[in-house]
What we know:
Elements: E1 3-4, E2 13-24, E3 29-39, E4 50-53, E5 58-64, E6 67-68, E7 74-76, E8 80-83, E9 89-98, E10 108-112, E11 115-119, E12 139-148, E13 154-157, E14 160-166, E15 171-182, E16 189-192, E17 195-202, E18 208-215, H1 224-241, E19 249-255, E20 262-263, E21 268-272, H2 285-300, E22 309-310, H3 316-334, H4 337-356, E23 368-369, H5 378-411, E24 415-416, H6 418-429, H7 438-441, E25 447-455, E26 460-468, E27 483-490, E28 512-516, E29 520-526, E30 533-535, E31 545-547, H8 552-561, H9 565-588, H10 597-608, H11 614-621, H12 626-631, H13 638-655, H14 657-673, H15 680-697, H16 702-714, H17 718-729, H18 734-748, H19 752-763, H20 770-777, H21 788-801, H22 803-806, H23 812-827, H24 829-835, H25 837-840, H26 847-861, H27 868-878
Parallel strand pairs: 2-12, 18-19, 19-21, 22-24, 25-31
Antiparallel strand pairs: 1-23, 2-3, 3-9, 4-8, 5-6, 5-9, 7-8, 10-11, 12-15, 13-16, 14-15, 17-18, 20-21, 25-26, 26-29, 27-28, 27-30
Helix pairs in contact: 1-2, 2-3, 3-4, 3-5, 4-5, 4-9, 5-6, 8-9, 9-11, 9-13, 11-15, 13-15, 14-15, 15-17, 16-17, 17-19, 18-19, 19-21, 23-24, 23-26, 24-27, 26-27
Pfam family, one: DUF3458
GO molecular function, one term: alanyl aminopeptidase activity
Domain Aminopeptidase N-like N-terminal: 94-186
Amino acid sequence: KVIYLKDYQVPDYLIDETNLTFELYEDHTLVHAQLVMRRNPEAGAGLPPLVLDGQQLELLSLSMDDRELGAADYQVDDSHLSLQPVAPTFTLDSTVRIHPETNTALEGLYKSGKMFCTQCEAEGFRKITYYLDRPDVMSAFTTTVSAEQHRYPVLLSNGNPVASGSEEGGRHWATWEDPFKKPAYLFALVAGDLWCVEDSFTTMSQREVALRIYVEPENIDKVQHAMDSLKKSMRWDEEVYGREYDLDIFMIVAVNDFNMGAMENKGLNIFNSSCVLAKAETATDAAHQRVEAVVAHEYFHNWSGNRVTCRDWFQLSLKEGFTVFRDAEFSADMNSRTVKRIEDVAFLRTNQFAEDAGPMAHPVRPDSFIEISNFYTLTVYEKGSEVVRMIHTLLGAEGFRKGTDLYFERHDGQAVTCDDFVKAMEDANGIDLSQFKRWYSQAGTPRLSVEEAFDAAAQTYSLTFRQSCPATPGQAEKQPFVIPVELGLLDAAGRDLPLRLAGEAEAQGGNRVLSVTEAEQTFTFVGIAEKPLPSLLRGFSAPVKLNFPYSRDQLMFLMQHDSDGFNRWEAGQQLSVQVLQELVGQYQRGEALVLDQRLVDAFRTLLEDATLDQAMVAEMLSLPSEAYLTEISDVADVDAIHAAREFARQSIGQALFQPLLARYQANRAISRDTAYKAEADHIARRTLQNIALSYLMQSGRGEVLDACLEQFDACDNMTERLSALAVLVNSGFEREKADALARFAEYFKDDPLVMDQWFSVQAGCGLPGGLERVKALMEHPAFTLKNPNKVRALIGAFANQNLVNFHRADGEGYRFLADHVITLNAFNPQIASRQLAPLTRWRKYDAGRQQLMKAELERILASGELSSDVFEVVSKSLA
Length: 879
Ligand code: ARG
Ligand code: ZN
C-alpha cells in the first residue's frame, strides 16, 4: 500500500498521557497501557471511529473509562484496532501479550543477547501496544518495568527515575517519568545485567546532569571515548546553537544486535555497540571518529528531533538532514575541517549520487512510500544535510543562527514540517527561499556546466553556468535550482584575484558565493587583466555534478595553489579520474597500460613537501574508489576499472618507492614510540603511514613484507594492526597472510566488533576467488545472519566494496546476494532490504550483467511472501 504526503490529515484523537507497565518474562511479555485520550479539536466536529495501530499483538483485555469491552465493541485486524468512542474524552486501558524473545526483526521490543531493548522509529511502537503510532501525536509517558531481579538488575526507560521496589518471586520494578511530551517513536525501554560508567556535565545555566553509559560487563573498558565525545557534544551545542540539555539524566546503552547506528530516544539513547565502544586495542581511528560523530548526532537530536519533531515521516529530513549537518560541523570543529569535508563529499558523491541515479531516487522530502524504513536513505540524511548546508552558506553563520533560534523558539514542543524550518530561516533573515525549496521536492543530482570567456581588451572574465537535472521516477521535468557556487579566480602566481562583478563599486574579497538561479546565467567579473584560472564550487558548496574543461596541467596547478583546501583535493581527484579513465580506455582497446607521468610527479611533490598537513597528503594520495569510478561512468566496465586502478597503484608504488618508504619509516617510528591517541595529528600520521604501506606492498619486496609484519605484531592499536592485516590480505604472500589471519582471529575471537573487522577485510579483498572466500567465511563460528553487524561486515562489504568479485561475469555474486536477501526477508526485513542496494544499480552495467541482476531481482520477487520493505525496493527496481 502506497502512502502519500498529499493525503496527510491531522489525527482525529490525541493522547495526553501514556502510562505503560511492562512485565518481562522469558517466554512472553505483558504490556498494560493506559491512554488518556481526547478528540482533537483541530480535526472537526463529531466523534469518528478511533483507529489504533497495532501489529503482532495478542489482545488480552480492553476497557474504556473502566468499562470492560467485549468482542462486539471493537474490531481487530492484523494492523489495527478500531472502536467507537462515546465521549470526546476518555481513558483506554489495554493489556497485550508480545514475544520479544522471538522478535528477530529487531523492531519494537526485542532481546539482544541477554538484554531487553527497543527500537521504535519509525513505526515500531505499534509492535508494543495499540497506539496512535504517528509522530504528530505527542504524549507524556510514565513507564514501569518489572522483571526478574538477578537477570535484569538494570531497568531503564525515558526521563527521570521516580520510584522502584521489589516484588515477590525474585522480581523488582522501576518507574520512569518523562516530563516532555513526545511521539511514540522516541519511547525506549532497556532491561539487563549492565554496568555503567558515570560522569556529569554542568550546563550553561549551572544545572548538573548525570551522564551514564551502560554496557555489558566485558565492555566496560571501552566507553571512555564515547563519554568524552558526549561531553564535547553537550558543550558544543550550547556554544554553537545555544541549546542546553533539559533532563537531570542522560543515558546511552550499547546493544550488539541493532539494525542501524543508533537511536535518539528521549534521555535514553540506544546504540549499536559499534557506535559506542572504542579503545585503542580494538577500534580503528575511523571507528573512534564514528563513535564521536554518532554520539554527537544522537545527542543533537534532543533539540533537532525531540523537542522539535516531525509532523509525519515525509518530513524525516527535517530532523535527519539538519542533525547530520550539525554533527558534521561538530566533527569539523573537533578534528580537521577540510578532511571531514573531503570524507563526506567523497561518500556523498559515491553513494548518494548513485541512489539519485537509480530506481529508488526520491526527493529529500519524498512524496510517497510503501515502507518508511526504506526512506532512511543517503538522500534524506546526507543530501538533506547538504541542503541545510546550502542555507547556511546563503545566510552566513550569523543569519543561520538567527534562523535556528527562531525555529527552536517558535516550534518547541511541536511536530512540524520542512516548510516550517525554511520559514523560520526566511522570517529571521527577511529573505525569500521559495525557489530554494525545490531542493526538498525535486529528486536527482543537478548538472552544472561552466563555460569561461576572457576579454583582454575589456579586462572582463565571464562565467556562464548552465544547469539541468536528469529525470527521476515520477519526475520527468525539473525547474532550476538555487545553486550557491563558492569560487575564486587564481592569477598566474596562484593567488586569489579580488572579485568585482560588473556593476559593483568595489571588489568583495577573493572568495565569494554566487547564486545560480536560472537554467543559464552569466556572471561577468571586471578589472581582470590576465586570464585567470577559476576555482569553482569551493568546499563543495552545492551537491551537483560540476563540469568545467580543466586540462591536466591546470588541475596540477590548482592542486598546489588553490587557497581552498577542499578544492586542492578535488583538483587531485579530477586529475586522477582523467588519468584512470585513460587507462580504462587503454585496457578496453587491449593496449599496454601507460600511466600519465604527471600524476606520479604530483604525488611525488606531495610526499616530499614536509610542510603539508599529513592528513591532507594522505587524502590526496588516495585514488578515487572503484565505486566512485563506477558512479561517474555511463556504463561501468568493472574489470577495466579494477585493472586500471590496480595498475595505477602499482606504478605509483614503484615509481615513488623511496619517498613512500621514507614517509612510512618516519611515521612508523613515531607510532612505535608514542602511546595511541585518537586525536587529529596522531590520526593523520597513521593514515599517511598506512597508505604508504599499502603502496609499498605493491612492489612485493621482502623488506616491505618485513615492515608490514613488524607493524602487525608490534603495534599497540587496531588502526595499525588492521591496516597491516589488510595489506597482507591483498598481497600475494599466502603463508604470511594465512598466519596473520589465524593469529588475529584466535586472539580476538571473543570480541564481536573486532571479528566484524576481520570479516570485512577479507570480504573486501579484490584478488580472484572473492566469492568462494566469502562463502567459506559464512561457515565461520563467529558468523551469524542474525546479527546485522555481521551481515554488513561480510555480505555488505563484499557486495559494496569488492566490485570486481561481486560483479563477476557469471552472475554468481548476484545469486549469492539474492539468496541471502530471501533468507533475511523472512526474519529481518529491514536488513534484507538494505542489502539489496547493489542489485538496484543494474543500469550501470553491460547488457549481460543487467540481465543477470534483473533475473535475481525477479527471483526475489517470486520467492514467496515478501515484507513490504523488500517488496518496495525490488518492485521499484524492476519497474
Ligand atoms: N533516528 C535514528 C538516527 O538517525 C535512526 C533511526 C533509523 N530507523 C530505521 N527504521 N531505519 O539517529
Ligand atoms: Zn538521526
